[in-house]
Amino acid sequence: MNRTTLSLIAATVALAAVTGFAAASSGGGEDDAPAKAAARLPVERSSLLCPSASPSDLAETAYGAYTPPSKDTEDGGTARLLPAGTDAADGTDQGTDKGKGDKGGDKQQKPVLTPKAPGKPVEGEADGADAPALIGTADGALAPGWTVQQTTSVTAGTGRGLLGLSCSAPDTDFWFPGVSTDEDRSDYLHLTNPDDEAAVVDVQLAGPDGAIKSDVGEGIQVGPHSSVPVLLSTLTEKPYPNLTAHVTARSGRVAAAVSAADAKLGGDWLPAAADPAGTLVLPGIPKDATDARLVVFAPGQDDADLKVQLATGTGRISPAGHATLHVKSGMTSAVDLGEVTRGEPGSLILSPTEDSVPVVAALRVTRGKGADRETAFIPATRDIGTRATVAGNPAKGVTLALTAPDAAAKVKVTASPGTGGGTATTKEYTVRAGTTLSVTPPVPSGLKGTYALTVEPVSGGPVHASRMLAREQDGVPAFTVQTLPDDRGTVFVPQADEDLAVLQR
C-alpha cells in the first residue's frame, strides 16, 4: 500500500473527529443506517452560539455551561464563550458587532464563561440590554457534549417573563413553525455567524395561503463573528398570527433562533424545530397549561394527513375535536388545543394517518389566566440519542419530561455537582410505552449554585425529553421549556480496514 492511501485514511478519520459538532448523529435515527460498521468517537471540537439575550434594561441573564465526562478522551482542552465581534484567537474586540455600540479596536474581551474540566459546571451572568451575542468554542476533553444554556428574567414590559434557550451549533438550514407578525407580537430572528467570512441568508415566510412574497428576506448579510437581528414583520406588509419561517444560508453558516415577545402573553425564545419528518414528538406540556396552540407546516409537494395524540402518564389519547389534522402543501396550519393536558402533564405526538408526508411543527404553550399569563414554545425535537445534556438548573423549579412514543424505555438521569459545590447523584426512570413521565429530577446533595443534568438511555425504545424551569414573577407563572436532543458528543468514524478495502479496489 502506498503512502498516499495511508494519508487519505488518516485525513478521513481526523476530519470526522474534528468536525463532529456538525456531523454527529442523534442516535437511533434513519441516518445511522449507512454508518453501522463505523465506530463512535468523541468529537474533538465543538462550536455553540448564543443570541443577544434581551433588549430590556430590566433583563437579568444567567448562563450555564457543562461538559459531561466522556470515555476515550484525553486530558486537557479549552472552552470559552466570547462576545460576538471578538477574535477567538487572542480575545480582542474586532468591532464587527455594532449593535451594542462597540467602536472596534484592540480592546481585550473577557469570556462570559470559561469551563475548566469535564464534569464541573460553570455559570456567568449579565444584566440589562448589554448582554451581547456570544460565540463559543470548545476543544479536547471539553468538546464532547459541551452545552450552554441562557436564561433571562424580564419583570415588566413587552415580552416579560422567563426566557430560556439552549445555545446552538452553526448550520445552514432551519425551520421555525410558530413565528408571527401579528400586531401584538415582536418576533426577531437572530442570526449569528462564527466564521471569518460573511454569511448570506435567505428567509422565506409561509402562512395559511402559502409562501409570502418578499424581497427583503433575500440575501441578508451576516458579517464575520457578528450577529444580526431581523424583525420578521418587516418581511411582509400584512400581519399574520401564525407563520412558518424557513431560514437557509446560501453561503457560510449561522446559528438561528427567534425571540418572540407578546404584548399580552409575555415572551420566550422559539428554537428551530426538528427537520421535516413523518412522525414528530413535542415533549413536556405542563399539567397546568391553560392553552396550547399547535402550528404545522407541510414543506413538500403533497398534503399531510396527521393523527394528533397526547401521550399522558397512562397512555395515548386524542384531544377532543382534534384527533386528525389536514395540512395543505406549502401552507401553515394552526390549531388551538385549549387546556389539552387537563391537569396531567403530557407530550404531543404527530403521526401519519396513512400516506402522509414529512412536516415541521411547534407548540405555543400558555400558563396562567387573564393578565397573569405567560407563554413558552416547544418545537418538535429529536430523541435523546446517545446522551442529552442541559445546564443551568437551580435547586427548585425544575421539571423533566420523558416521553417514550413507541416502546417502553429505561433512562439514567445524572445530576452533576453544583457550580459552587455539591455531590453528583444518579437515578434511573422507567417510561412506559406511549406515555410521558414528568418528574422532579435528582438534585446533587449539598448543592451550591446551579447544576447540569444528563439523560442517557439504558434500555428499550427511543426517548424524547425536555426541561422546564418555572418561577413566579409578580403573580405571573413564568416558565420556559428547553427540549433535549442528543448533545452531539460523539461522531461516527469509518473503520480503517473498511476504508482500506474500498481504496484498494
Describe this protein's structure.
With 505 residues, the chain is mainly β. 6% of the residues lie in helices and 46% in strands. The strands form ten sheets. Strands 9, 11, 12, 13 and 15 form a five-stranded antiparallel beta sheet that branches.
Helical proportion, percent range:
under 10%
* Portion in strands: over 45%
Task: Flag low-confidence runs.
Answer: 1-35, 95-106, 500-505
Q: Rough shape? A: globular
Largest sheet at a glance?
5 strands, antiparallel
Indicate the radius of gyration in whole angstroms. Answer: 22 Å
Mean pLDDT: 87
N- to C-terminal distance: 12 Å
Given helix and strand content, the structural type is mainly beta
Number of E-state strands = 37
Provide a count of the helices.
3
Features:
single chain; 505 residues; mainly beta; five-stranded antiparallel sheet; globular
Strand and helix layout:
Elements lengths: L2 H16 L1 H4 L15 E4 L2 E6 L9 E7 L12 E5 L38 E6 L6 E6 L7 E8 L6 E6 L6 E7 L5 E9 L5 E9 L2 E3 L7 E3 L3 E6 L11 E9 L3 E8 L3 E5 L9 E6 L3 E9 L6 E8 L4 E2 L6 E4 L4 E5 L9 E7 L7 E8 L6 E6 L8 E6 L4 E7 L4 E7 L5 E3 L1 E7 L3 E5 L5 E4 L2 E10 L3 E10 L2 E8 L6 E4 L2 H9 L1
Antiparallel strand pairs: 1-37, 2-6, 3-5, 3-7, 4-6, 7-8, 9-15, 10-14, 10-16, 11-12, 11-13, 11-15, 16-17, 18-24, 19-23, 19-25, 20-21, 20-22, 20-24, 25-26, 27-34, 28-32, 28-35, 29-31, 29-34, 30-33, 35-36
Helix pairs in contact: 1-3
